[in-house]
Amino acid sequence: MLKTGLSLLAGGLMACSVLTGSALAASDGAAVYSTNCSVCHQAGGVGMPGQFPALKGRIDKIAATPEGKAYLADVVINGLHGPIQAGGASYVGFMPSFKGLPDDDLAAVLSYLTTLGGTAQTITADDIKAARSKPKKGAEMMAERNALNAAHPIP
């Protein structure tokens, strides 16, 4: 009986640590977002019409495919500039590269942003590392965005 009770307790603690770990990742992502992204994309990822697109309700949809996850990782590593369509609106802007931040922080912020849409997706430090290993210039980023949009329309 004691052995069974200890096994159940150990299993419960392991489950809690997994849940706590993902909750902590979301918290870390929220902090990274608040410090680095909210100035432009605003608190809660609601964006600023005509200047900075909303991220809430969009990032989870983009991250739903492997190509979308790769694109998001490329954006935070390489930045993005030029005209884009997002959420039915046009934007001509500049998103700087955040390649100076650690892979874990960038993965945490992207994973956090997916939670704002209600369908959490996991973006890993390995996803960021893959993007970091293949830097892209502005035209390459726009070509990647256009290809992704043709295959899986970007909201």
UniProtKB/TrEMBL annotation:
InterPro entries: Cyt_c-like_dom (IPR009056), Cyt_c-like_dom_sf (IPR036909), Cytochrome_c-type_DH (IPR051459). Residues 24-117 form the Cytochrome c domain. Transmembrane segments: none annotated. One of its GO terms (molecular function) is metal ion binding. Residues 1-25 form the signal peptide. Keywords: Heme, Iron, Metal-binding, Signal. The keyword Amino-acid biosynthesis does not apply. Pfam families: Cytochrome_CBB3. This is Cytochrome C biogenesis protein DsbD.
